[in-house]
Write a structure and sequence with these properties.
Blueprint: H1 12-23, E1 26-27, H2 28-38, H3 47-59, E2 63-69, E3 75-81, H4 83-108
Antiparallel strand pairs: 1-3, 2-3
Length: about 110
Protein backbone atom coordinates (compact mmCIF):
# COMPACT_ATOMS: atom_id res chain seq x y z
CA UNK A 1 0.00 0.00 0.00
CA UNK A 2 1.45 3.37 -0.93
CA UNK A 3 1.24 6.37 1.33
CA UNK A 4 -0.40 9.46 -0.07
CA UNK A 5 1.37 12.74 0.55
CA UNK A 6 -0.85 15.16 2.43
CA UNK A 7 -1.29 18.88 2.09
CA UNK A 8 -1.10 20.66 5.41
CA UNK A 9 -4.03 22.52 6.90
CA UNK A 10 -3.49 26.24 7.18
CA UNK A 11 -1.76 26.95 10.50
CA UNK A 12 -0.51 23.39 10.89
CA UNK A 13 2.79 24.17 9.18
CA UNK A 14 3.60 26.79 11.82
CA UNK A 15 3.05 24.22 14.57
CA UNK A 16 5.25 21.66 12.82
CA UNK A 17 8.05 24.18 12.29
CA UNK A 18 7.92 25.32 15.92
CA UNK A 19 8.01 21.71 17.14
CA UNK A 20 10.89 20.83 14.83
CA UNK A 21 12.90 23.82 16.05
CA UNK A 22 12.15 22.95 19.70
CA UNK A 23 14.49 20.02 19.23
CA UNK A 24 17.41 21.96 17.69
CA UNK A 25 18.19 24.91 15.43
CA UNK A 26 18.08 24.05 11.74
CA UNK A 27 18.18 25.55 8.28
CA UNK A 28 15.09 25.57 6.07
CA UNK A 29 15.95 22.50 4.02
CA UNK A 30 16.68 20.57 7.23
CA UNK A 31 13.30 21.56 8.67
CA UNK A 32 11.42 20.27 5.62
CA UNK A 33 13.49 17.06 5.57
CA UNK A 34 12.89 16.44 9.30
CA UNK A 35 9.12 16.88 8.94
CA UNK A 36 9.11 14.50 5.97
CA UNK A 37 11.28 11.97 7.81
CA UNK A 38 9.31 11.98 11.09
CA UNK A 39 5.99 11.72 9.23
CA UNK A 40 7.43 8.78 7.26
CA UNK A 41 6.95 10.63 3.99
CA UNK A 42 3.31 11.55 4.53
CA UNK A 43 3.97 15.27 5.02
CA UNK A 44 5.99 17.02 2.35
CA UNK A 45 6.69 20.72 2.88
CA UNK A 46 7.51 22.52 -0.34
CA UNK A 47 9.87 25.48 -0.35
CA UNK A 48 7.13 27.80 -1.57
CA UNK A 49 5.24 27.19 1.69
CA UNK A 50 8.19 26.77 4.05
CA UNK A 51 10.06 30.04 3.57
CA UNK A 52 7.02 32.33 3.82
CA UNK A 53 6.10 30.48 7.03
CA UNK A 54 9.62 30.93 8.41
CA UNK A 55 9.51 34.66 7.63
CA UNK A 56 6.09 34.95 9.25
CA UNK A 57 7.27 33.15 12.40
CA UNK A 58 10.38 35.33 12.50
CA UNK A 59 8.28 38.51 12.16
CA UNK A 60 6.10 37.34 15.05
CA UNK A 61 9.19 36.88 17.22
CA UNK A 62 8.71 33.14 17.64
CA UNK A 63 11.96 32.23 15.87
CA UNK A 64 15.22 34.01 15.10
CA UNK A 65 17.66 33.38 12.27
CA UNK A 66 21.45 33.44 12.12
CA UNK A 67 23.78 32.68 9.25
CA UNK A 68 26.02 29.63 9.60
CA UNK A 69 27.73 26.89 7.62
CA UNK A 70 25.69 23.91 6.51
CA UNK A 71 26.84 20.29 6.41
CA UNK A 72 28.30 20.88 2.92
CA UNK A 73 30.10 24.12 3.95
CA UNK A 74 27.58 26.45 2.32
CA UNK A 75 26.17 29.51 4.02
CA UNK A 76 22.67 28.83 5.31
CA UNK A 77 20.21 30.62 7.55
CA UNK A 78 19.69 28.67 10.75
CA UNK A 79 16.47 29.18 12.67
CA UNK A 80 15.93 28.66 16.38
CA UNK A 81 13.00 28.96 18.72
CA UNK A 82 12.71 31.96 21.07
CA UNK A 83 11.12 31.96 24.53
CA UNK A 84 8.01 33.47 22.94
CA UNK A 85 8.13 30.67 20.36
CA UNK A 86 8.19 28.03 23.10
CA UNK A 87 5.14 29.62 24.69
CA UNK A 88 3.38 29.72 21.30
CA UNK A 89 4.31 26.07 20.67
CA UNK A 90 2.64 25.06 23.94
CA UNK A 91 -0.48 27.02 23.05
CA UNK A 92 -0.62 25.70 19.47
CA UNK A 93 -0.10 22.12 20.69
CA UNK A 94 -3.00 22.48 23.12
CA UNK A 95 -5.20 23.90 20.33
CA UNK A 96 -4.21 21.09 17.96
CA UNK A 97 -4.98 18.41 20.54
CA UNK A 98 -8.42 19.92 21.20
CA UNK A 99 -9.16 20.16 17.45
CA UNK A 100 -7.97 16.64 16.65
CA UNK A 101 -10.07 15.20 19.52
CA UNK A 102 -13.13 17.03 18.20
CA UNK A 103 -12.57 15.69 14.68
CA UNK A 104 -12.03 12.18 16.06
CA UNK A 105 -15.34 12.37 17.95
CA UNK A 106 -17.17 13.37 14.77
CA UNK A 107 -15.53 10.59 12.73
CA UNK A 108 -16.46 8.00 15.36
CA UNK A 109 -20.13 8.96 15.27
CA UNK A 110 -22.27 6.25 13.71
Amino acid sequence: MTKAKSDLLQGTLDLLILKTLALESMHGWGISQRINQISEGVLCVNQGSLYPALHRLENQGWIVAEWGSSENNRQAKYYRLTAAGRKQLAQETENWERLSQAVAMILQTT
